[in-house]
Write a structure and sequence with these properties.
The structure holds two protein chains of two kinds. By secondary structure, chain A is mostly helical. Chain A is built from 13 helices and two strands. The chains are: A mainly alpha, B mainly alpha.
Amino acid sequence: MASPSTLEVTGVPGRSVRARPFTVSPSAPSAGRWPRLRRYGVAYLYLLPSLVGAGLFILVPVIAVVVLGFFSWNLIGSPHYVGLANYHAIFGSALFWSSLQTTAIYVVLTVVPLVVLSLGMAMLLRNKFMGAGVFRTIAVLPWLATPVAIGVIWEWIFNPQNGVINNVLSFFGITGPAWLSSFTLALPTVAFVTVWQFLGYNMLFFLAGLQGIPNSLYEACELDGANAVQRFYRITLPLLSPTMLFVTVIDMISSFQVFDTVYVMTNGGPGYSTQVMNFTIYQHAFQFLQIGYASALSVILFVIILVITVLQFLYFRKRLTYDLS
Amino acid sequence: MRPHAYRILLSSSGRYLVLLVASVLFVVPYLLALLASLKPLNQMFSGSPFSLPHPLTWHNFVELINQYDFGHFLLNTAVVAICIAVGQVFFCALAAYAFAKMDFPGKNALFAVFIAMLLVPGTVTIIPMFIIVKNLGLLDSLPALIIPYVASSVFGVFLMRQFFLRIPEDLVSAAKVDGANSFQVLTKVMMPLSRPVLITFGIMSFVYGWNNFLWPLIATNGNGARVLTVGIATFQSSFGTDWNLMMAGGVLSLLPLVLLFLVFQRYIVSSIQLTSFR
């Protein structure tokens, strides 16, 4: 990784190098008033910022969100314990079930096209050819884009009056639909923008995965008379399953948490047609100030993400029969 | 021989066609937004979206900066993103060094806790985070946008630890024989040797801080600590049909990232190999 020139260890300035005799002096690190602290103190000191940071902003919050789920609190008064009342209310709420369903559909509408299309693109880019590097760069560019900015830009592109898409469609004499204010099209349109943003990023994983498959396997297969389709199903796909697992899991985790694009493109509407889980949590917590209810919703989202992650790992572990590493 | 040559030509031109269409799809939103941001409002409603700006005008950017404080938002965004990037690289390197090259009681247990925290999705913790930051009295300030992230990247610790583990122990002991203390070993040996991973992770942190929306939306209220993402969303909810200004806002947020991407392209693409470790 590092170039050879950076490998040389230079002497530390300001200190002359002394040769030390190999004798154990009585004041070795284990001595002193607090021997353990003196010996290990530095390690704990280095860990301290991360322990405080991650403790205060990940570990404590994740415990707190579970606890808050059993309370009723509007942020101003004092919280009071309500047991499972929040969960009862949530499971009886039509909005919860509809936002859960919307989120699930959104996940399918993003993850399936992302995996299929990025694998397809990686297959096209697999062999070296002129322009492959340029295309790879272009495809990855949207990954870094600010979702809020991209959401606003696509909102304009899909705008029915003066947007780009319907402008192009009208050139062919087609009257385009009102994409983002249609109950049926709004969610797929938002999902399309997510696919657009993460396609190139996912493709890089598949490119790396494809590079890991030895050419000799394909050559052997070709000698046995397998055609391109057979080679894909018998070699490429099984050997890519670790990459598939990884890509599917990270895509699902991020899709379950979608917020930014929904907020700027549709604000949950029309009606509740794009109101995903995270949007419902945001509304209950920071608009209706139902901290307990929103915390319970967060816990449910957390459990769903956790279960899916674990299930996918178990499922793929059973099927992963080839190990090239 | 001939049919074979035809097939190759056909398949490669088919591939180029598919890739050309895909590239256009990837780039066109950027170009259209840039075009639109240089147009006066009336041209947004009359001419085609593909037409060149006529007259070409910087007025949208000037108006956003002078009237709607977007210059201030841009500065806030840059400060937040830079602080998060620098802080995360530094604090993660410290913790990663302790995990990779030092021995202390409770090391394995602590590391297990760190791994477990990797599984916590970012949005799940946002409500308690708000309560904590509110009680620290930080709401509506730039520190509110920086402090929760600056030392809490579990992923960064994990990533750098993997990298530090690969650096031979001999180098560490050689530096110690030369009289280096452990901090000097970290800054003069480990970090220079891990430059690619530090730069890549720094870019990822910067982009995260730059693009962050939900947290600044919750944690800030007034214009003082507002960042670009919240600025764009707020502007949109008040002036949702001033498409030329909204496109200019989008360009303001995207252009620095495009430049960053072009400069550090190599590191960004290599981040894939870093994140796909198993």
